[in-house]
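I keep forgetting this: the sequence line spells out the residues, with the fold written below as integer tokens. I include a record here:
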Amino acid sequence: MNSINKISSSKGTSLMEVLVTMIIVLIGLLGIAALQVKAQTAELESYQRAQALIILSDIVDKLNVNRDTASCFRFTTSTSGTPYIGVAATATPSCTASTTAYNTQAVATITEISNFLQGTDAVMGGSNVGAMIGARACISYDASTEIGGNPDTGLYTIAVSWQGMSILSTPSASCANNTYGDEGQRRTVAITTRIANLN
């Protein structure tokens, strides 16, 4: 009789055991889903930073190519990082530093950089998607760093800013400050360079 009772009591699992197992599996699946969302956000942040570094390098190259009209690229004049080019640009490209041909080339170059920051080179569903979210660039010049008092030998600071997906610490470089809501969402990469005098 005891052996019959043992067999009947071990025939299957109770409904309670099934529910506990389902809850454990559900918690695991929710954890995996949350991890996937964080991974996608991190991937987008990484992609945007890589894009910004490419654009930053491109601006340095373009500034060196246009060395005769480099002063026309000095459109950022304040510590708040304005004016800037790119999305909702506050700087208007203009140049009167050299010959008509060089001036026209400088304006076209600045406009090209601004359009690239706005993502106009790639359009999907009627929206520009070729650059970072809210991409902007600032170029400033520090006359106090000129070598031997020679004009146009000072340091240029080039910064590229965009909107991040999460709130982090505020970047130290000033470019498009207070344009992305919380300053912790502003991402900025910057470089300081000097243009060689080839004359």
Q: What stands out?
A: The helical segments are 2-9, 15-65, 100-117. The beta strands are 85-86, 123-124, 127-128, 136-142, 155-163, 186-194. The mean pLDDT is 90.
